[in-house]
Structure formats: structure tokens, C-alpha cells
Amino acid sequence: MVCEALEEKSKDLLRLEIRYVQETCNPSKTHRNWAGKLKLIALCLALIGLPLPVRAQLKEDDAQLLNYILNSLKYADTAERFIDKLLDKYGADQAVKADLEWRKVDIHNLRGESDQAAELSKVLQKKYPKHSRSSLADLGSIGREMAKVTAAFDKATTDPENAAKHHQAGIEVFEKNVEPSLNAMVTDLNAKLKTAQEKYIKARRANPDAPPPKEYRSLRGNRDNVELVRISVLRVFAGVLRSVPSLATKRSEVLNKGLAYAQTYVEERANNRLLQWQAQMQKGRYEIELEKNAEAYDSISVLLGIRPPVPRGRPVPADLVDYMKKLHIEAVLYASQAANHAGLHEEAVDAVESYMLGADKGPFALNEAHRDPKLETYFFLAQLERAIGIAGGGDTTKGLAEVQSLIDKYKSQGNDPKSQAFVNDARKGLGRIAEVSGAKLNAESYYEGGMGKFSERRFEEAVSLFLNALDAANSKDRKDVVPKTLIKIAEIQYILGRNAEAVMTFLELHKWVPLLGKDDLSIKKAANDAMSIATTAARANRGHAGYQALEKLADAFLNEVGGDIPPGLREFVKAQEAELQGDLAGAIDIYGGIQEVHEGKPEPVYLRAQAKVIDCKVQQWLLNAKKDDPDVVAQIKGLLAPLSELGKKAKEAGKLQAQIVCSWAAAQIYLNTGDQAKAVEALIPFQEEYASDTQYRAAALYYLLENQIALEMGAEAEVTYKPLKSDYPDHISSYYGALQLMEYFRGKGEAEKAAQYILDYASHEKAAEEIKTVGRIMDIVDLLLEAGLLEEAKKWLARAEAIVGDDDSPDGKRVYFRRAKLSFQEKDYATVITALSTYIKKYGEPKSSEEDGPYILQMLGESHLRQSIANKSLKVSGLKLALINLAKAVNGIKDRRDLEDSGERSKAERAYWTWSYLMMFTYKKLGDAGSKKAWVKIRRFIVLNKNTNMGGAKLKARFTKLLKEAEKHK
Questions:
Q1: Cβ atoms < 10 Å from Cβ of 667
Q2: How many CB atoms lie within 10 A of CB 262?
Q3: In what helix (H) or strand (E) does residue 143 lie, and over which residues does it extend?
């Protein structure tokens, strides 16, 4: 669990001049690694490590470039050189100089130079005591002390004999160095704030309009932030204590203290909504930890519908959008989790469906969050809570199907650590469904649930679920479920020291030889394990008749299946098991221990095992909190050379599987270090050369396609998509591949190609649920209309109409408008006018805030115009009606922040001025016929608008020419 600070850029519209803290926590135990994720002093160094907004006289372009180099590119050396140039440029300005020098602390932290960062912080504290960061610099030392706490608890796991001593050492560091320091910072900032506040009150008496001084605002912001850090740090400490059952009372004390702080913060720190919302989230999560789940749901659910105070018509800052989406999706996840634990299953389902899976199109919408790497985990876990809520609410079959679908989805994506972590979490979800619903599961579901418990090392609970799997097994499950379930039960019994039971369970597999065959690897492994355990136990219990009998039975089993399998292959299978359970360090040890030659015979899996050692190291890196650390990245890139050598040796030796692992691991390194061209090169063999691979190929083809698109290799991406579609028609990768190509070609303006791929997407079984929603059907219809595939569009419209019927809901209105749009493309303008006129009478004039509002008016106006042109009856009255509707449409689009950069606004404005000229030209005809009023109207319109763009140079020249003619008829 990692706490990190996020910096909100100073914006006039929000007046955010203080830092706020956001705790980023991977909600699944599967992904947690205290040793890896807290050991970089990340807890609190990050709180001061992100750059403050560059204020004062630093020019906007300089500030933006510096932020880009530091925040986005993370180029420490380039940033340092640029700051030196800026110091020369702005050196006389002390305020800017202070900001820039503090940014050098950020550079040290970016490089992982925590000691240098701390040393420079102390210097700058003394040099710029009034700077806002000076009062926060002590968080760095607190972060280092917190790292000692987690290190002590980590040491307890590797030195169990002295665990209690290590635990106590960690607690003492927290109670002596962490918590008192945080409390002292809060006390000091409160005292300084009180003095500054008194000065401000005096200034207000003299001048009621006096704004809050910068010092006061800065101190208040820092005080609020440190208080929020204290709340976060206490919960992190409680999380560390969770791993030790004997410290449950201590943990409860810490949680109750943190909850009290959070409650006070929510009630008293309302001066900044973003911070208050964070405290509200912390309050709810404390309540979850204390198992006050109904209260937690009440606390967190209030965050579901909140929106930041952004004035209408102003663009929403990108960093604020990111912040709010993260806050919202956390609220969805934890509200649904709390609701399920409290038995409020309907509320859990509603939270996910209403706020995450709905059709919201606004800037804070979450329905595409699964495409955002920062939000994908939350999206997945919230889906899991929804499935548990469905099952808990009574529809166990549907809930189980949802979870099994998630397991199948991520199992099919290969062995990357993220997918495996998702599979493990989904397995735990099956176990929770069994608990909340009390329903009987099928054998496969019990097995998956048992695997989830096994991954958490909750062995007794795992055995219980595995036994349920055996009880539930029917004839269809005999080959798929029973053997692997028996193997896992035997492994657990061995882990728990029950050697006789382990051997007997392995021997149960003897009867499965006729069904599975003697060459089945699971059977061979079971026979080997039974023999190994039985022999070891018999030697340890010499003369024990029972163990001697077991040894004879195991020996008979081993002989029946063809004797011993190569030790390297046996070890390879063990390593695979460890890898699948997330024990990457254990897998590396086993893979690395496989010898090249055993008893004079070459081990067939040696090269593959060597490649897997590197592959597992890459997986460890991808799960590590310091993934972007330059030193760590350099070490990972150093693995490319041995991978290349291994790949060459494997090719010479004809070891295709080893080649495949080498290519996959190299591709993962390239993909995650930003070298897309090299990644494409590494993945190309998966098109044809590695067509026989069953482990990585589907995911590899998708990554290849994705990066080809990123490199603007659209034609090549289409080639990659062909085997995805043909060889993996039901795989999640072909589903995402179709979506990627659709978005790519739509962005290129090639609507027909884009439509081809959206139809592929729609035919995929993974899209079956999505295309039952009107929102998704409308997306398909829009693209088909854009491509001019009107007959296909009619079919999809009919689907949507069947869903909404005569419903007056927003979905019903959307479908109604698309039907009118179809008529417009068929040039049936009379039908459009009738339909949209009826629409306005029925629903009222569309608002600009409505998704289709501006376009309804635009289409109505254009239909009036086109109909009059087609009937050769162009009249001023018709033009006026068209122009009024278009003007409303233009104004509506101006109000739509989400359309400002889409080209829709400029497109509508060009149409408006074109039609305006047509109207003025029609007035000219009337003027030429002797109507002086027509010339007056021309003159008045052009004079009022001549200082605007008027649709561009050509149109403006025409308007100017008309004005000159009108001037002659005064």
C-alpha cells in the first residue's frame, strides 16, 4: 500500500492553492507486497516529492514545459539543466527562485536519491522559511522512519523465531518517531495559522474586501494536508499490524484513533472540498477495516454523485478530471464492498451499475475506466463486487456466471502478473459467493474458489472448498476437475505436514490412469510426488508398517505410469505452480536450479527454464512500486542481452518453447520501457512462426496490434488482427483488437473501415452483455450512419427500439433522434421535420447540456433549408426558422465543454455563417425588387457582426460586398 501526494495545479476557477493527499492503495491482497511497496520511503517522501505549481512570475510556457519534463517524461537530467537556465532567467525574482530550487528536491527523489533530497530540503527550509514547502519538508524524515516500521515487520517474516522482537521494534519506531512527529507538525502549523489568521482579521477590519494573504492560504493548506497525511499514515500502520493476529487490539486502537481524526476533518475542514472528500473516503475505509460496514456504505456512498465546483462553460482541467475519476471509482468499489459485507446486496449492485457501468458521457464518466491502466484494477474489483451482490441478492447462477466470465477473461490473457492477480481475486470472489448466498456451486466454481483461498495460504478453507468440488463433481467434471482438485488437496496436506494423507490422496489418482492416460503430466507428477513423500516418510519412521505399505503402493503407481520423469521437467512443473500462485521469487529459485545436464543426460527444459528465470524477474519488476526507478529500469534493460543469447541458442537447438519465452519476456521489457518499435519486432514471430503456442500468442498478437496502431502502422495492424479473429474468435484479445482498429480508423476519418471493426466487436461473445444496452447500440448506430451503412444501421436501430419501446427515458429520446438522423441521411427531410417537431412538442426544446440537444436543433434547421432548396421554394420565413434553430445549436455547442475540442463547434459555426449569407442573399433579391426594408436588414446584420470572423475570409468578403451594395440604397 503506497501513500502518495497529488498536486492540484493552481486554477482561478477552483482557487486550489494547496496540496492535497491521495492515498493510492491496490485494494486486493493479491497485489500487495509490503516489502516491495513501502520500502522506497514512498509513504511520505512522495508527499513532498511531487512538484508544486510554479507560481508568481514564471511564464506559463516555461511552467508547462518544466512540468512536462518532470511529471510526464521523468527526465531528471534534462529537468535539472532546464531549471538552471530558468534560474539564470528569473534569478532576480526570489519567489520564483525558491520554487525552482525546491524543484531540485523533486529531481533527487525522481532519481531515487532520498538522502540528497532530504539534505537539500533542510538547506532550503532555512533559506526560504516562508515558502509553503518549508513547513512540509519534515515529512521526508517521517517517511524514512515509516520505512523502518515496515522493514521491521518484513524482517519478522524472514526471521520467525524473533518475530515478536521485530514487531515490537517496528511499533516503537512508529510510536516514538512517526506519530509524535506528525502531531508536532500539526500543532506547529496550527499555531502559525492562528497568528496569520489574527493578522488577516485585523486587515479585514480596515478593508472588508481584503483577500486572504498568500501566507495565510499557504499555512491553512499545509495544515490541512498534514492532517490528512496523519489520517493516511495511521491507516497504513493499521494495515501493517493486520498481518499479526496477536496485535489485533493494538490495530483496533490505531483504527479508532484514525477514524476519529477523519470524522473531525470531515466536520471542520470544509474550506476545500477536494480535501474534505478525501477525508470522507478515509472515514469510510476506516469503518470497513473496523467491520462497521453499514456505516462505511453510508459514509462512502455520499461521494458517488459529487462533482467539483467547475463554473459552467469553463474547461475542466485534465488533472482534476483524473483526480475525480480516481475518487469516484474508489467510491464505487468501497461502497459496493461495504454494502456486500453488510448484506446490502441490492445497494452494492446499484452502486456499480449506476455510477460505473452507466451511459454517462461527461468528463468524469467511468464506463471506459477499464481502458485506463490507473483505474483498471478498481474497475475489475468493482465488477467482482457487483457479481457478489447479484449472487447475495438471490440470483446465484448469474453472479457465478459473472465471476467465471472474469476468470475466463483474464486466464485467456496469458501469464502476465496483472492478469494472474485478477484471476486470483476472481477466485476469491467465488468463495465469497458461496459464503453470502449459501448456494451450492458447481465443481469448477468450488475448485476456483479453493485456488483463491490457496493463494492466500488459507489452507484449511481451501481444502474445504476443494472437498466441495469433489462432492459436486458430475460425469462431465471427471476429467477436468477431479484430478487437479485431488492434486491440490494432496499438496496442502504435504504443506501442513500430513505426509500419510498426502500420499494417500496422490494414490487416489491411480484410478484415473485409464481416463487420463499414462503420459498425462499431472498423473506422472502425482506418481513422482507420492513416491518422494512416501520414501521420505518411511525413512523418517523406520519400521512403521503403514509407511512401508504406502511406499510399496507409490512404487507400483510410479512403475505403472512409466517410471520417473526427468527431474528437470518435474522441477519445471513445480516452478510453474509457484509462478501461477504469485510466488515469483520461489519460481525463480526453482527454474534457476534446473541443471543443463542430469546424470549425463541433457535436460530438455533447461533453456526454457533459464528464459523463465528472466521472465519471472520481469514480472516482479512489473509488480514493483519502483517500476519507473531509473536504476531498476537499467537493470531490467540489462536482461535483454542474455535473453537475446538464450533465444539464439534455443533456435539453434530447435527449442521452440524456449524461443517463445525469450520473445515474450523481451517484448514485455520493450513494452514497459516505451520502445514500441522494438516491442513490435519481438512480437512479430507470434503471427506465424509461433502459431503453435498456446500460452502467450493471443495476448502477444493483441499487444502487437496495439503497438502497431500506436506507431501508425494501421495496415500492419489489420494483418495482425486476422489471426486474432480466426484463431481466437472467442478470446478477449480479438474483442479488444476490433475495438482498437475501430477507434484507429474512426480517428483517421475512415468510417467504413471503422464500421467493419465495430461490427466485429459487436459479434464477439464478450460484447453480448454490452450490446444489450441502448448506449452501446447507439455507439454502433452512430458509426454505421457515419459510414453510410444505412441498412445495417436500421437493423441496430430496430434492436434499440425493441428495448426502449415507447419509453420517454433519456435512452428513448436518443433512439428517437437516431431514427430522425437516419431519415436525414436518406434525404427524407419532410420526415425529419415532422419527427423533430414532434420531439420538441413532446419533450420541450432540447437543452445544450443534453447529449444530442444541439444536434437536434441543427438537423431541424438544416432539414428546413434543404427541403426548401429541393422544392425550389427558398423563402425568408423558412430561412429564418432554419437560422434560429442553427443559432441555438451553435450556442448549445459553445456551452458543451466536452465538445470544445472535437471540431463540432467550428463545424456548426461555419454552417451558421453560410446560412446567414444565404439569408442575406435572399434579402438582396427582395431589395433588388424594390424592398428598402430588405437592404436595411442586410446592413444592420452585417454591421453588427463585421468585427467577428463571419465564417472565414471568403465568407467575410462576400458579406463585405453585400454591405457595399446595401450602403448604395440608404
A1: 26
A2: 28
A3: helix 139-158
Long-range contacts of 924-928 (CB under 8 A, 24+ apart): 924/962, 924/965, 926/876, 927/966, 927/969
In the chain, the amino acid numbered 52 is L
List phi, psi (to 5°) of 626: -100, 35
The residues pairing with 2 across neighbouring beta strands, listed in sequence order, are: 24
Cβ-based burial of 391 (10 A; exposed 0-12, middle 13-18, buried ≥19): buried
CB distance 813 to 843 below 8 Å: yes
- Dist. CA 576–CA 583, nearest whole Å: 10
User: Whole-angstrom Cα distance, residue 454 to residue 485?
Assistant: 12
Query: How far is 771 from 794, CA to CA, in rounded Å?
Result: 15
Helices and strands, number each (H, E), in the chain: 45, 4
In whole angstroms, give the CA distance from residue 72 to residue 191. 37
How many CA atoms lie within 13 Å of 815's alpha carbon, on the beta-carbon side? 24
Flag residues of the chain having pLDDT under 50.
1-56, 896-901
Integer angstrom CA distances of residue 751 from 503, 742, 800: 63, 9, 21
Range 218-221 contact pairs with CB under 8 angstroms and sequence separation of 24 or more = 218/17, 218/18, 218/132, 219/135, 219/189, 219/192, 219/193, 220/18, 220/193, 220/271, 221/17, 221/18, 221/19, 221/132, 221/272
CB-based contact 813:842 (threshold 8 Å) = no
* Interval 180-219: pLDDT, tens: 988 988 898 889 889 888 888 888 888 877 788 877 887 8
Amino acid 33: pLDDT? 32
The span from the CA of 111 to the CA of 36, in Å, is 17
Q: What angle do CA 35, 40, 42 make, to 5 degrees?
A: 105
Length of the chain counted residue by residue: 970
Element holding 207 (H helix, E strand): none
Helix (H) or strand (E) holding 348: helix 345-355
Which pLDDT value is given to residue 869?
A: 65
DSSP states of 112-129: T-HHHHHHHHHHHHHH-T
Q: Which residues sit opposite 24 in a β-bridge?
A: 2
The overall pTM is greater than 0.70: no
Whole-Å CA distances, 475 to 291, 516, 854 = 42, 14, 61
Hey, what amino acid is at 330? E
CB 102 within 8 A of CB 133: yes
Best CA proximity match to 598, nearest among 565, 562, 645? 565
- Answer for the pair 222, 18: CB distance below 8 angstroms, yes or no: yes
Pull the grid cell for residue 869. 432548396
- Measured CA to CA, the distance from residue 945 to residue 964 in angstroms comes to 15
Query: What is the C-alpha separation between 301 and 304, in angstroms, rounded?
Result: 5
Contact between 328 and 300 (Cβ < 8 Å): no
Report the alpha-carbon distance of residue 877 to residue 884 in Å, rounded.
11
pLDDT of residue 109: 73
- In degrees and rounded to multiples of 5, residue 44 shows phi and psi of -115, -20
Distance separating the N- and C-terminal Cα atoms of the chain: 78
Distances (CA, A) of 389 to 305, 343, 396, 448, 896: 20, 9, 9, 19, 36
* pLDDT tens column, 253-281: 999 999 999 999 998 887 778 888 889 99
Residue 893 near residue 854 (C-beta atoms within 8 A): yes
Query: Residue 563: left if φ>0, alpha if ψ -120 to 50, beta else—which one?
Result: left
From the list 759, 744, 7, 775, the residue with the least C-alpha distance to 362 is 775
Name beta bridge partners: 5.
Answer: 21
Q: How many CA atoms lie within 13 A of 965 on its CB side?
A: 18
Q: What is the DSSP letter of 69?
A: I
Residues β-bridged to residue 601: 598
Q: What is the pLDDT of residue 286?
A: 94
887, three cell numbers: 443559432
Residues 6 or more apart in contact with residue 453 via CB below 8 angstroms:
428, 431, 459, 461, 462, 465
